[in-house]
TrEMBL record:
Keywords: Kinase, Transferase. One of its GO terms (molecular function) is kinase activity. Belongs to the ROK (NagC/XylR) family. InterPro entries: ATPase_NBD (IPR043129), ROK (IPR000600), WH-like_DNA-bd_sf (IPR036388), WH_DNA-bd_sf (IPR036390). This is Sugar kinase of the NBD/HSP70 family, may contain an N-terminal HTH domain.
Amino acid sequence: MDVASDRSSPRNRTREEVFGVIEHHGSVTRARLIEVMGLSRSTVNHAVAQLIAAGRVAEEDAGAKGPGSGSGRPAGTLRIIPHGAPAGALDFGHAHIKAAVIDAEGRILSRRRTALDVDLQAEQALDLGTRMLDELRREAGLGDLGAVVAGIPGPLDAATGLVRSPTILSSWVGLDPRAELGRRLGTTVHVENDAVLGALGELRDGAGRGFRDFLYVRASHGIGAGLVLGGEPYRGSLGFAGEIGHTPLPGHTELCRCGNRGCLEAVVSVASIRVQFDHTHPHDRGATLRYDRGGDPITQRILDDAGRLLGGVLAVLCNLLNPAALIIGGELGASDGPLLDGVADTVQRYAQPAIAGSLTVLPAGLGVDAELVGAATMAASLARR
């Protein structure tokens, strides 16, 4: 019987849902599965028994119970048994491409970063990303990749997979990145918005662990947000949720690439911070910028101001969504520095007191690699199926 059709049959759908929950949690007890899924004990036990018999799940025995502890099953821990092909991850930023190859357990074996104007060079970016993955795969001595996940810094139509917005990634409009990469790589490819992958990376391995509802913000050459609601990434009805970079800021007239003026990412971005730094540091033009607290007072002020502008927009979103945490990533926000301070102060000032009082603001635990780690996590999962 075909494995894919077997797994999608009504009889075995519950088994696959149980597998997905175990995979999502990393390790989980049967009691926790019953609680999370709302299924009967017998249904969960039957599904787990099938997964163990198939060699897809292992149960680590918690040991015998002590006297008086009851006669039920010990609270053993269920975990996925890694198997399957290696996988690949791509992170297309506005000004860079990152690539990585991953083993069956989801560990990144090797990675590479290359600078490129991705917005204006779609075909070149797709070709280069393909070449980077192939070189990493061969250098690591790996066979064919079982799956590849790529993140792009723009909105994807969830129904068609096409890049729709003519104001973001202008040379990508009308392209289907999944089909383009699949043709080049010859394997299963899944494409996501980069901020969604950043949120997933932080949820599984970064600062988002322990939070079921949080907002991840990538503050870099553009500004994008990934939402996690109820422990799962939220993409919106068409897949466009989190496109906050073109929120207008009253009183600002900076020209944005979308044709409007005063958009958030035209005022708060790596390029904008660079212009302000070069203007205030004429003798240090082109110097490496420090985004942490180790910079000079003028740079600290520039970053704090940028954080306050970003915080004003995020305060509105916090009032709407009531997240437990704001996680700031990207080059501008991944360090615990003045930009983060500006965000935190402004959110505390303008979010409703009950919301602000319960909100945690913190830098991305994975730094600038949150998107790549999120892509790697998803790719390893796809390669195991």
